[in-house]
Fold this sequence. Notes:
Strand content: 15-25%
CATH topology of the largest domain: Rossmann fold
Mean pLDDT: 90
Low-confidence stretches: 216-229
Largest sheet: 5 strands, parallel
Structural class: alpha/beta
Number of domains: 2
Number of helices: 7
Oligomer: single chain
Helix content: 25-40%
Amino acid sequence: MRLFRDRDDAGRQLARLLEQRGYEDAVVLGIPRGGVVPALHVAKALDAELGVVVARKLRAPYQPELAIGAITSDGVAWVNQELADETGAGAAYLEREKAGQAAEAARREAAFDAGRRPPVAGRPVIVVDDGVATGATMIAAVGSLKSAGASPVIVAVPVGPPHTLKELRAIADEVVAIEEVEDFYAIGQFYVDFAQVPDQAVQRILDQYRERRGPTEARAPTEAVSPGG
């Protein structure tokens, strides 16, 4: 089992895989918060625009840590209906949960990105996270970007279990993963340093990358901003 030192290490390895594929005029979107650090390395390698796509999990009744689906700021949702039924999440509950989480996704997307996400229609979009477990937020993100006209939509992650990556391959145009691991418990088990990425670090990464790259032409590559400083 491969261990990544941290999200910067995972991002550099992911970037090496992706830069061989020749994506042109690509947009790289990280899923906050942990996905933005590896997304930075991918964007630098591809000389691509960088932004975020926020997806919020839909919580099971009385079990807020259990995801029964996910939703993005534009209301595109994915629901694990079997799990929703098992946990007693009826139609009325789901509608309330979707509305609340979509509003929170919109708030967080605006806070991180200030409405500056690059246009995606007709462009290749690479969605990056620090790993996938159930895949709920990534599935919702892919659906949202396809609805917005992105083509192709590529999922890029350092690690995930085979069954989740198979689900993602059914909806994304391409899935790039460094490691597929059957014995999968949590994303953090594949990192030596899996410290939380503060909101302020996400904003700093986006602001500094855009400032250094410039609005219309690429600047010289710069070192990654590490989480927390």
